[in-house]
Structures are given as structure tokens and as C-alpha cells.
Amino acid sequence: MRINKFTILLLALFIVVTYSCKQNENNTTEEETSFSLEYEKFTLDNGLEVVLHEDHSDPIVAVATLMHVGSNREKPGKTGFAHFFEHMAFNDSENVPRGSNRKVIPEWGGTRNGSTSSDATIYYEVVPKDAFEKILWIDSDRLGYMINTVTTEALEREKQVVKNEKRQNYDNVPYGFTFEIIRANLYPKEHPYNWAVIGSLPDLQAATLEDVTEFYNTYYGPNNATLVIAGDIDLEETKKAVKKWFGEIKRGNEVAKLKPMPVTLPETKSLYFEDNFAKLPELRLVYPTVEMFHEDQYALDILGQMLSGSKKSPLYREVVTAKKLAPRVSSFNTSNELAGEFTFRVRANAGTNLNTVKAALEEGLKNFEANFDEAQLVRIKAKQEVELYNGTESVVNKAFVLANGNVFANDPAYVIKEAAFTNKVTKEDVIRVYNKYIKGKNYIMTSFVPKGQTDLAMENAVKAEVYQEEIVQGKANEEVGQGAEAQYEKTVTKHDRSEPKFGELPLFKSPEVWKGTLANGINVYGIENNEVPLVSFSITIDGGHYLDPKDKAGLAKLLGDLMMEGTKFKTSSELEEAIEMLGATIDIRSGDEGMYVSGNCLAKNFDKTIKLVEEIVLHPRWDKSEFERLKSSLLTNLKGREANPRTIAYQSFRKLIYGDNHILGTPSIGVTETINNISLDDLKQFYTDNISASVANIHVAGAVGETTVLASLDGLGKNWKSTEVKIPSYTLPKQDKAGKIFFIDFPGAKQSVIYSGKLALSESDPMYNNLDYTNQILGGGSSGRLFQTLRIEKGYTYGAYSYLQNLEEKAPFVVQTSVRANATLPSLKIIKGLMSNYSKDFSEEEVTITKNKILKSSAKDYEELGDKLRILTQISKYNKEFNYLENEQKELVDMSLEDFQNIIKTHIQEDDMFYLVVGDKETQVEEINKFGKGEAIELDIYGNLKKE
Question: What's the short name of a Pfam family annotated to this entry (predicted)?
């Protein structure tokens, strides 16, 4: 996993707030404080900087270790090492049993992961508080005592995992090489941003044990790290525990600070690339800008939003509205530790010549120069207070913010100062940075076009060169395994580094739920929670895609989109402005079985936000031009989805499950033929027939009480009519595909996407939860056998999982992974073996692990307001008891081995499953035919039987 280190920080920009810190308590008064991020910081003798934050709202703790080393510390020929080392660090260490780092944390009810950016690497976990000291044990061992455990076998296996990650996220997807091409041309070869974070495959393949050891010794000392602990902790006890577990780690080499390295371009470069996967042409322009914390960064951030961030923005109006060249346009600034980039991106409609896109961008920029929208500048600042609270609602996000601030600004709460800097940005500042960094300046321009459509690229563009891996069937040096454990002399420590015991088990208690009823009969469900001054809400309207006529699938989706494009009283842009001025978000989406109006706002703006929701739901605008734009945009998106093998696999799997005659056999967003059938009158009729109070429920979670909520919803209760809605019933097709294997050709694919499954249970079925529990050992996250075998043992994939989809209709049980192309057949055999032997291998030990894993994760799973909304939705949809979570936990506790075995024998029998593979036919079909499921049945990319 790779996240930009300021992803969370950027959420907090543009709103003036002050903060309270134990070190500065006397400088902050209660009246000044509109946002509090309290912390205590200390430094161990070995240089490790530690930041603690108390949050007793939930019995969970987040631990984040941020190493100040990213790909910017690498050298040409050794690229990708920071990210590769992140993977290696999750393997073994001297005092933690082999494989525990990835396996036991989920079994303790926690989550864990890591990410690497250009400038840093972060490791993090969120666990129930009883496992807190166990995490300190694991994290400290990883930081100080892992390098001796690295073996050649582990090194080679992890190379394959990282290579699979690169294939999955870069090489096997459309536009995957864009970032690599831009960086190689924007930055000089000696600049540490010249290469992508994940590095090059030849460099990864050439990595040696000596390289790994050198990297660790150079950069992984505690004096180059920040440890943040946030959550339900006692400060004094935590300090003692940190000193015990981390205090003996040897201080590392001193790591010199890097100075900013901004770049200038002597000329504009225009490059094109024929993309094997892309179906739509894409244009990007990238200008060099400034490093983080530069005084111009904040104006550049706002400039990006002003140019394309709303329907009234100049680029949107020119590219999308006037010229109708693309569904959307984006512009944004990215400032990293050493340098920055300002990007324009347009993924155009199919067949669009990118020269016309470039001309439209230029016209939009001229309009910006001539007509600066000062009101938009105000709205940009106004809407950020909500994002500030959203960005620090969870303890792990607080940990990210504190760690980033400490490492890059030597101030854990630096986000607050950044907010103040940004709030001071003026019109003159925005115009100044536009003239300084964009207008008339040189840039890198890339034209990514579908294969065989080079005529769509920018005129006079030069072909970009990119290394592309060739995967050879049966390549011997890619058959890897875990190998034997390393032989070494264990490091002597003063403190016993044996695994600590669990602390006191935190007991999960269902939140208090209230229920009210509006005048028209709509039920309202609420949870009052005052941890942050926010409110999240949703209105569920039964039906959604299930109400689509078969030949007009996607109708509900289009209706939801159009309802957000203005009301009877407001144009599309006026509605957008009204929402932004409240700092709120409102959205409508359609799913398989319902439409969902959802939103988020400050508690003080809840009433005004709900008044806008009422206007949106009850008074659609029916703007014909907006309808035509949305329809065109959807057709473009559908074309783009044809370029993604994982999307193709998912949609085709669903079609194999539900067939041609069931509405769920067609995607909820429709297909090209069905979207072309839809008219504006169809949307009006669907609205009249189906958007009724009789099938609606409302859910509210946050810092508002029942009385306030019901008062604000009074208008919806009085004005929304309750009419009968007829939800159709469908007959499930005969399930006759067991034991078969289907194949879809995706020429040149570096990976094969594998799906296996069968129709299982409705979410309303009493056995649904039991099947979900029973699956945990097989495919429930990184501790599941699928993940542990296909990734950890074999290195065939980046991830492998199984799960039960949640539908009121009977839903499928699914096994899903993407594997290296030449490992397709062995991966299929492993999946088959794991399912075939699941009953035999499921013992009392697995019963205990399952119960611990699920019971202890409850507090973490319902921490945020969105999680609480899901509780309310389950109550309203399935008429569950208010404390149903506690009831379900009791159900789990009471399950015996026999109960688990019965579920396996009924729902997870390999003989009942069918398989689907999306991959390169030229190299894989003959292999798949050896699997033992007969000859592969070929389908087209839409899941239809392929015609000869």
C-alpha cells in the first residue's frame, strides 16, 4: 500500500483553527479553540521521537511508526528499495514468531498495513486496547531486531509479491505507466524523484541481501523515526511501556536532512504512449512547482481547486460543459519534501483528438485570467472545516497527522498552522502563483491513447519509452517459497522480549439507538455521538437497480446523478454553491437494491443541510442539457471500464451467477445498449413511480439529538408523498455451472484475475452471519489461508480473499485474486485444494481464532460515524433489534465446531463452485485446460458466450 503522506493533512487545509497542546496550554484559551489536537511528545535516549494522544471514546489504540525514508533516498539502479524494504520489514524478526506480523494482528481483532511515499515509510496498526502492548512488542522488534532474520528465500519471495503489486496496480491497468513517464522526464536522472516509488522491476530483481542490510543500517535507526500512539491509553503507563520495548534499540547512523530540490524545465516535452489496456485517450500536463511548506504551496493548492473544482470553474465549463470533450477535468498541486508538481488531467471521450482537449484547456485558462471568481475562493475555504474533523475522526488518522507533522515540520500539530497559512491566501496570491508557475511556463505533456489510435495523440508528440516486463510461462526463477528460518545469534537485551500477555479485554457495547416517525410514516433511526461536531446521515429508498427495466438498466443510477444537478429552484451550479457554503457534502447513488441519499455536515449546519436535501429529493430540476451530459459521461465511463480486467471479471462473474434474465446479471450502472435506451421521460416516470416515502428510511449519527433531528426533518415528513411502490421479484436461474471453468481473453495481461464461487445466502437468512464467520479462516483478510498461501508462501499475488456479498436477494460466496500470469494454473490448484480440505482442516483451534478475531474487532469496526450509520441501516432494512450486534456476538460465542462444519459442508464445498479467469489467452488457455474442470468455456468481455 502506498499513500501520499499528506493525504490526511490536505483534508485539514483552508480553515482557521487553533490547537491545544500540553506543551503550550498557557498560550491557548478556551475561547480561541475551535479544534483541539492535544499531544505529549518526548524523545528516548536513542533518538526515537514519541508522540502520545489520548482518546478514550473507543477502547482501541492506533500505533504508527513513520520512518523518514522514502524513494527519495534511493539511487539509480537501486530504485524501489524503500517500498521493497517496507515489505521485507513485515516478515520476520528475532523475538516474534515467524509469520506473526501479518497473521496474528487480524486474529487479535486488529488491522495493520504500511505505505511508502517519495519521502517516508509508515507502518501502522489499530487494535483493541487489550492487545496494545503486544503491538509495541511487534513494532519494536521490527524496528530494532529484524535484519538478522532476512534470508535469501524470503528476499526472493517478497520480490515476487512486490512485482505482483506492480503488475496489479501499474502494468495491468490503463494509464499505469503515466507516472513513471512523467517523473522520468520532469526530473533529471540524478534527482531522487526521477523514478516511481515502486521502482523498476530489473532493479527489484537484482536486489541482494547485502543491499537490504545496507538500507536497514543506513536508514532504520530509531533516531530516524517517529512513533505515534493514539487512542485509549494512559500517558504515564504508555511512556513506561515505550521505554521498555523501544529504549534498548541501538541508535542508528545519522541521516542527513535533504534540502529542497525544485526543478525547472528548459523546454516543454510532449510524449505519447500506446496503452495496451486503455479504451479512452488521456491528456496530462505537469508543471514543476514548489516543495512542501513553501509559502507558495497554499496558493497553488487553492489554484487547483479554482480551475476545475466546481461546475462554475473555468476548465470544467470549457472542457465538460461547452466543448463536451470529457466527463470531468482535474487540476491539482502536489508538494512533496523536495519539489512539487501542478497537474492538469483530462480523460476524454472515446475517439476524441487530444489536440482539441489541449485547445479547450488553454481557452479555459484564458477565461480564468479574465474572470477571477472571488466567491469561489470564499467557498473553498468555507467547506474545509468539515473535512478537518472528518480527517481526524478516527484514531489512526490522528496518528497519521501527528506523525507527518512531527517528521516534516518538527511540530506534530503543524496541520493547524498550515490551515492558518492557507486561510490567508488572497486573490492576488492565487493570480501571482498562476503567473509564476503556470502561465507561459514549460511543462511535461503526455498523450496516452488506446492501442492503434495514435492519431488521437498530440501533434508532434514523441513516443515515450517504458520498460515492459515479459512474463514467460513456467519461468523457473519465479518459483519461490518461504524457505528455512535464518540461523543467527539472537541479540542480547536487558528486558525480556517474550510476547506480553493480553491486557484487560475491552467489552463492546452497542451504541444507544433512538427511533422516531415522521408525519408520512417514514421511520427515523438515530445515534447521538458528540465526539466531533459532525453529523452523518442517509436516506435509503428501497428498489434502486432492482426497479430498472431490464432493457434500461442504469436508469436508477442516472436518476440519482440528475437529482444532484439542480432543483426546481436552483441550477446545478447554484445547488453546488449552496452545499459548499455550508461546508457540507450531499450525494445520491444507486445500488443493487436501493437508492441512497447521504451527506455529512457540521452539527450547527444540520438543519440547513437537510433543507437542501428536501429540495433535492422533492423538487428535481429535469434539466435536459444536464441529462444529456450525464448520459454521455456514463457512456464514456462504461467504455473505460472495458479496460480494467478486474471490473470485467467481477461483472462477468455476476452475470454467470444471475444469468441474462435477472436484473442483477446486469451491472447497476447499466451497459452501453441499455443506457442508449434511456430518455429524460424515463427518469421522470421512474421518479414518479418509485421515489416514495413508503419505501424510505432515514438514519442520522452525530452531534445532534432526537428532538433536533425530527424538527429538521419535519418538512420531509409533511411534503414527501407516500405512494405504493411495486418492487418486482425475479426467479433465480438454475445453478448449473458447478465444476466448470470460464475464460475471458485480455491480450497481453501480466496477471490473471481469478474468481470462484457459487450462489449462497441472502443477508436476511439466519445463517448469513454464520457463513460470514466461518469464512474468516479461509479468506478473511491477511490472516486467511488464501492470502497466507498464495502471497506469503508462494509470492503469486498481492492479495487473495473470499467473502459473502451482502444483498437481500440470494448473494454469492466469492473467492477472488489476481495472480502472476504464469502462476495461473498453480494458483487455481491451490484455491481448489484449500476449499476441498477446508472442512477437514477446520478444528477447535480455528473455532477459537474465529471467535477472538470477530469479537475483539467490534470496537474498531464501529468507531466512525459512517460505521454507526451502517448499524442503523441494518436495523431499518432487516428490522433488527437495536442491540443486534450484541445478539450476533452471542450467536457467535455459542457456535460449536459442529456448527462451523455444517456451514462448510453446506456452503463452501469446492465441488459446488465454478471458476472464471480473465487473462492472456495466448499463454494461459492451454494451462487452464489442464486444471481438471474440462476445457475452458470462452466468454467475451461482457460475460457472453464467445461466438466462433
Answer: Peptidase_M16_C
